[in-house]
Amino acid sequence: MVITGAEESLTGNPTNYDRLQELKAFDDSKSGVKGIVDAGITKIPRIFVRPPEDLATGEPTDTHFTIPVIDLGGRRADVVDGVRRAAEEVGFFQLVNHGIAERVLEEMLEAARGLHELPREVKAEYYTRESTKKVKFRSNFDLYKSRFANWRDSLYCVMGPDPLDPQELPLVCRDIIIEYSNQVHKLGITLFGMLSEALGLKSDQLIGLECAKGHVILSHYYPACPEPELTMGTTQHSDPDFLTILLQDHIGGLQVLHQNRWIDVPPVPGALVVNIGDLIQLISNDRFKSVEHQVLANHMGPRLSIACFFIPHLYPSTIIYGPIKELLSEDNPPVYRETSVQDFIAYYDEKGLGENSALTHFKLQKGNQEMRG
C-alpha cells in the first residue's frame, strides 16, 4: 500500500496526486487506519487531510454549557420530563442507572479493542463494502464520496430484527456483543416508551411504528493520530436512525453542535450517551432534534466507542414514515414528506457524512406545507 503523506502531498506537484488511486490502495489493503499507524507514519496520508477551508473556519467551542445527565432510576414523570427537554433542546443526553451492568460495558469495550487489534489477515476476512452483509469490518462507509477520509475503523453488525447467527461474529467479541446487544435493545424499548409519552402520545406508539424493530451495533476504533489538527475522527453529521445509544471509553472527543457552538460530551463513568436520530425528528415534525455531532482526532488513543443504531436496516419494512398525525394541526403543518427507511438510508449513504443534513432533502416546500395543513 503506497499512500502519499500529508507533507509531501500538500507541497508537491498536485498533478502527481491521484486521489481515487490512493483511496483504492487504502481500501484494497483491508487494514484500515490502524494498518497505516502500524506502518509507523509521522504524517497522515493526504486522503485524510481536511480541505483548507475547513481548517481555516469552524464554530467556537462552548465550555459553559453541559450535556444533560438523566437518572433512569428516578420517578418516571421526572425522567420523562427530562427526556422531553433534552430531546427538544439539545438532542443529546447522558443516561445513568440505565440497568446495564458495568461489567458488560467494560467487557464490550475490551472486546472491541481486542477485535480491532487482531492481525490484519484475520480482520481482512471480514472486510467488505457489500451492503447486504450483516457483519463487516471496514473503514469509512463513505470512503469514495467524502471530501476527506475519517481517522477511524469500524465493525458493523446487524443484530435485528432477524437474529444474527453467532458464528458470523469474530470469536474475540462474539459472546459479549450478543449479551450487550440484548441488553441495549431492552433499554431502547424503555426509552422509546418515554419518548412517546414525552410527545404526548401513548407509551407504545413509537414501538408500534417499529422504531425498535431493528438495531445495528457499530464498534468504532480511533487510533492515535500524529496530526489530529489536520483531520477528524468522525466528520460533522447527524444519525440516520430513530435513536442512538453510545458507549464511549475514557478518552473523549465527542462533540455536539448546540446554538452554533461545539459542546464536549465528556465521558461519565458508567453512563451511556443517547441521541435523537433523523427519523425521530422527521416523525416528530421537528419537535425533537437530531443534532449535528463529530468526533475529534487525538494524539491519544486508541479511542473506542460502541454505537447502537435503532433502525430496521436490511429489513423489508412496509411502513411509510411521515410526521405523526396526532402532532399536526393548522398551526403545526407537516414539515417533511413521507419516506421509507430504505429510501432515507439510500439517500444518506449516497450523500455521505457532512454538515448538510439528509433531512433537508425530505422537507416539504412551504406551499406544500400549507396545503397539507
TrEMBL record:
Keyword tags: Iron, Metal-binding, Oxidoreductase
Domain of life: Eukaryota
MF terms (GO), sorted A to Z: dioxygenase activity; metal ion binding
Keyword Iron applies: yes
Domain Fe2OG dioxygenase: 213-312
Keyword set includes Zinc: no
Pfam families xrefs: 2OG-FeII_Oxy, DIOX_N
Named cofactor requirement(s): Fe cation
Family in the record: Belongs to the iron/ascorbate-dependent oxidoreductase family.
Name this protein carries in UniProt: Fe2OG dioxygenase domain-containing protein
